[in-house]
Amino acid sequence: MVLGDDGRLHPSSTSHDRRVVGVVAGAGTHRPAVILDRQEIAHSPRAPISILGKVAVRADATSAPIRVGDLLTTSAEGRARAVEGSDPPIGAVLGKALTSLEGGVGMVDMLISLH
């Protein structure tokens, strides 16, 4: 998820987006531990966002496989993908892959490490 110009969270739509703030929590076997700013607003759907810890994230390995230890970033499709090159843009890294994905789209466990 990225911070939009309107100050609200939106799915990522750009590769290596520096506005990234976290990942939607609760995928796979991982459940959110702490939810900050919990509010019940009927007309505004809300989702817990992970900003720290271990999460499962939808990942895209169609252009390059994701290996354990790879840094992950945003993609234009709203999925995580391996960072291209050895010098990722500051602020565009989501975290580090804890599991691999050889190809296609699937789930990858990730340690969130926003930087």
What tags apply to this protein structure?
about 120 residues; mainly beta; Virus Head Decoration Protein, Chain: A; five-stranded antiparallel sheet; two-stranded antiparallel ribbon; 9 strands; about 0% helix
Describe the structure.
There is one protein chain. The protein contains no helices and nine strands. The chain has a single domain (about 1-115), classed as Virus Head Decoration Protein, Chain: A (Beta Barrel), CATH 2.40.300. The chain has about 120 residues and is mostly beta strands. It has a five-stranded antiparallel sheet, with no helix packed on it. A two-stranded antiparallel sheet has the order 1-2. A hairpin with a 5-residue loop joins strand 1 (about 1-5) and strand 2.
* Main β-sheet description: 5 strands, antiparallel
Low-confidence stretches: none
Q: Can you count the helices?
A: 0
Please state the second-level CATH architecture.
Beta Barrel
Mean pLDDT figure: 85
Strands in their spatial order, largest beta sheet: 5-9-8-6-7
Order of helices and strands: EEEEEEEEE
Number of strands: 9
Helical residue percent band: under 10%
Q: From the structure provided, what is the oligomeric state, counting identical versus distinct chains?
A: single chain
Structural class: mainly beta
CATH fold assignment: Virus Head Decoration Protein, Chain: A
